[in-house]
UniProtKB/TrEMBL annotation:
This is Zinc carboxypeptidase. The keyword ATP-binding does not apply. SUPFAM superfamilies: Zn-dependent exopeptidases. The lineage of its organism: Bacteria, Pseudomonadati, Pseudomonadota, Alphaproteobacteria, Hyphomicrobiales. InterPro entries: Peptidase_M14 (IPR000834). One of its GO terms (cellular component) is extracellular space. Its cofactor is Zn(2+).
């Protein structure tokens, strides 16, 4: 047996360091863990998936599956650490922790800790490009003209340029000149500035500093449902990016996946569907189960659970299109969350007033965040403003917040706590899966070599075997099937293979039964067969098969 791998959650691992640790975990736990490559990136890096289950309790595809992915967006480094934590927690706690043991015995986990290894590696090295996309484009090639981000003062960080300009919309705070506040309408008589990301201007006309939307890509807009080429980084066509295409293929090849979470930063919120519709246009039963599972998440992480459309889409005419969740829930009916890890403002003591806000914070909020960053996040997160002679803009200052190491990712000291809380939520979500079991299998001898066989098949899970109403509406949910196999005999009444339909979960029983409320569906269904058999070796086997709720087999001898 190999040694326990040295895995720490107080640092951000490079691709090579992460790969070594994944390989070491797979070597240390060869029975429970299988490491595979889904695809190769533009830069030739493998996109890893770790599959984890106890094979002694049945094949992986015969168990409810849970899918976690991370770092589809390059600069969201905390996500990869959180996915690695989920892998590490499950494997190292098998046989020690009741939940981890039960989950690996009865379910299977698929964890993709770094979907976008090229972009991640790029943004993990100085000057820490604010990079979303994969390796299709490189910095400088992701825009035609205008401002090109560049570490022009050579300090190893991309920060901000404040350019004196009497037309400017910014001014230095009177209390703290490190902070920039917006100039009010009608305000005159001060020293004003324009703020730009650090860089040089390609094809500068000497007047206007244009900034193009980059085409580095946003693979979370590259999925087929509601795809639109107008989205930032949507790609040339759905699944045009090799990493996204490999993810989609993987999800389609694992129809047992019944729950998912995609990790992102930042914001400290658990996001649920819909991406494109108000709650009033969603299935009420689906919303309720999202809220109930989300409530568990909020208890474990402190993060509120919010609708992407209702709470995270400031302009309802500009809904997000082509996201992974849109495809996996709105199309396939899989219960899908996306967690935005890490909330710098909450950590700095700022009261949360909204979930998506591009507007500048007021002076008081900025001061709290500034004080926190200076005290806890060091010079990697804050660069003092320094005078600089810009070849195109003249005398300016360069400095300010390093976005990627402040707002976008937590300080390494906080990483483990964030990773743990969020991974534990996803294990709890996984444990809400449907679980189909043959509760009873009875034989009644009727004489003349005839036997009545009665089986009761039930769903022991929180979720129904169809997972969601959307899955039924889209005909994505396969009915539970029960098959009778007879050894040394034959079935003489009722088909050997029966479709049971769907079995409800306990999710629809939120309160005692009431004629006014949600009416209950069956969680268990009986079936009977008549079998003729003779001889001492005769017996029957019943196999209950649910695409999402697993496969259960029971046998009984006849006579
Ligand atoms: Zn993201």
């Amino acid at each position: 047996m190999t040694a326990e791998p040295d895995i720490r959650f107080d640092r951000y691992y490079s691709y090579e360091e992460m790969t070594e640790r994944l390989q070491a975990l797979a070597a240390r736990y060869p029975k429970l863990a299988t490491l595979r490559s889904l695809a190769r990136s533009f830069g030739g890096r493998e996109v890893w998936v770790m599959e984890m289950t106890n094979p002694d309790t049945g094949p992986a595809l015969d168990k409810p599956g849970y899918y976690i992915d991370a770092q589809i967006h390059a600069e969201e480094h905390a996500t990869s650490a959180t996915a690695l934590y989920a892998i590490w927690h499950l494997l190292t706690n098998y046989g020690r922790d009741e939940e981890a043991t039960r989950l690996l015995d009865t379910q299977v986990f698929y964890v993709l800790p770094r979907i976008n290894p090229d972009g991640a590696e790029l943004s993990l090295q100085p000057p820490y490009y604010n990079w979303c996309g994969n390796g299709r484009f490189m910095p400088g090639a992701d825009r035609h003209a205008g401002l090109i981000p560049e570490d022009i003062d050579g300090d190893g960080f991309l920060v901000w340029m404040r350019v004196p300009d009497p037309k400017g919309e910014w001014k230095k705070s009177a209390r703290n000149p490190d902070i920039m506040v917006q100039r009010a309408p009608g305000e005159e008589g001060g020293d004003y500035f324009r703020l730009y990301p650090e860089g040089t201007i390609r094809d500068f006309d000497g007047a206007n500093v244009a900034i193009e939307k980059p085409f580095d890509g946003n693979m979370n807009r590259n999925f087929p449902t509601n795809w639109s080429p107008q989205e930032y980084g949507a790609g040339e066509h759905p699944l045009s990016e090799p990493e996204a295409a490999a993810m989609a293929r993987f999800i389609l090849d694992h129809p047992n996946i019944c729950g998912m979470c995609a990790y992102h930063t930042h914001g400290g919120i658990i996001m649920r569907p819909s991406m494109t519709k108000p709650d009033s246009a969603m299935s009420a039963r689906d919303i309720t189960l999202y809220k109930e599972i989300g409530r568990v998440g909020t208890e474990l992480t402190g993060y509120p659970t919010v609708s992407i459309y209702e709470d995270f889409t400031p302009d309802k005419t500009q809904v997000r299109r082509g996201g992974l969740m849109d495809w996996t829930y709105e199309e396939m009916g899989i219960i899908s969350f996306g967690t935005e890890l890490w909330d710098l403002e909450r950590e700095a003591g700022v009261e949360k007033v909204g979930y998506y806000n591009l507007y500048p914070r007021n002076e008081e909020v900025q001061q709290k965040v500034y004080a926190y960053v200076r005290e806890h996040m060091g010079e990697k997160a804050w660069r003092d403003w320094r005078p600089f002679h810009h070849p195109q803009l003249g005398a300016i200052e360069i400095g300010g917040m390093v976005n990627i190491w402040s707002y976008r990712n937590p300080p390494p000291a906080l990483l483990e706590g964030i990773a743990r809380a969020n991974a534990l939520f996803n294990l709890r979500h996984a444990a809400a899966a449907p679980h189909v079991k043959i509760d009873t299998l009875e034989v009644e001898p009727l004489g003349a070599d005839l036997f009545k066989i009665r089986a009761v098949v039930a769903n022991h899970g929180y979720l129904p075997t169809n997972l969601s109403d959307v899955a039924i509406a889209n005909k994505a949910a396969r009915p539970v099937e029960v098959a009778l196999e007879v050894e040394g005999g034959e079935v003489v009444m009722n088909p050997a293979k029966v479709e049971l339909g769907h079995l409800a979960g306990r999710n629809e029983r939120l309160y005692p039964w009431s004629p006014w409320g949600q009416q209950w569906s069956a969680v268990a269904k009986p079936m009977e067969w008549l079998v003729r058999a003779e001889g001492p070796g005769a017996g029957v086997r019943v196999v209950a098969r649910s695409q999402k709720g697993g496969v259960h087999r029971r046998e009984v001898a006849l006579g």
